Every structure is written in C-alpha cells, then in structure tokens.
Amino acid sequence: MTRPSSLRRAFALRSLVQFLVFAALLSAVAIGLHWYSLDAGTRPDFKNYALLCAFLVLFGLLQWMFLKNTFSKVSTESPASSTPKSKKAAPVQAPGVDREKRKKEDKRLFVHLFAVLQREGRLMDFLQEDLDRYEDAQIGAAVRSIQENCKKTVKRYLSPEPVMRQQEGETVKIEAGFDRQAIKLVGNVGDQPPFTGILRHRGWQLRSVSLPELSEAENPDLIAPAEVEIL
Known about the structure:
Strand content: 5-15%
Shape: elongated
Strand order of the largest sheet: 1-4
Oligomer: single chain
C-alpha cells in the first residue's frame, strides 16, 4: 500500500511537469504571435509579450503550489486510501456486569476444586458421612485411601510447598524484614526482630497453579452429579 509521503512526492512531480508543459505551450504561442506580427509588417511590442508570459508563468506556478499544498493537507489529515479501516470498537460492558461475571467465574473455580476432589478421592462423601456408625479401624482404612487420592489431586492443580523448610518443633530465628503475611508470630512477641521461637506449623504456599478450562455451559453450583443405574 502506497504511503502518504510517496503520494505527495508523486503528485508534486506530476504537477511540476504539467506546469513546465503549460509554460512551454504558452511560450510557443507567444513566439507564434511574434512571428505573425513580423509577417503582418507591424513592429511587435516585446514588453507586452514579456508581461503576458510572466503573468501566465506566475499563474501556473501559483496553481501548482496551491494544488500541492491542498493535496498534502488532505493526505495528512484524512488518508483514506493509505490507512486501513479501523475495526469497530468492542462494546464496553457495564462495571456491574463485568464484576458479576468475575464473581461467577471465581465461584466456578472454587467449586470445581471440590468437584475434582470428590471425583478423585470421594472427599465430599467422606465429609458428609456420619462416622459415629463406624469403628476407628474402619475409619482409618477409609481415610488412608481418601487422603492419597486427594493429595494427588491437590498436587496436580496447586503444587503446594511449606513456607518454612525446618521441621515442626525445631527452634527457628526470624530475622528483620520477614513477610508478616507468610509468617505469623504468636506467644510472647517482642517489639523488634530478630525473634527466636519454636516452629509450630510450617505453613503452606503455592509453587505453581494449574487452573482448568471451564465451559460456560457448566453449572457453577454442581459439585458432583447424582448417579442412577437403570435396571
């Protein structure tokens, strides 16, 4: 696609050529009138010819400059032929609609984690079960299987790791500038770090997150569908 600067140069050059041709034709007409006067036996007035040629040359030059400046202004302000048509702006959604959409997506992701834990480890079944009916040995055997399956699922999606690498029960030292959101101080806390204490819980943080792609058609309130065996 031709740029506006190239169009301006081409137009200016073409206009200049037209002006030179126009001036040459006028000069030829003036010379023809001069020779006609000589053949008629009258003495030509060279002053009048010079004024006529100067006026015509000046007129042609002004016309060329006017056309050149007009084309430059038009091609700069509205280059319709050199710039692609702008795409239609996407409709702007109202803030309330966008906020509700994000809220719904967050809810679906939160429920989806429980749905996966239910599908892989039957976690929801275990949490809703009445354990008073079972012996401790039965509960222990069931919990082992549920814990293994749920652990694999959580590791696949969240990849958790401890905040502090030391073992619980060890004595640790908290230096100045520590992250107060990642490390919670309890007990007899002094005014200024460093602090020395016993690690009661290592904490958890995410090393990586693998969020699933959710379909818009999914029910955000559904954890697990009911299963009916048709006889």
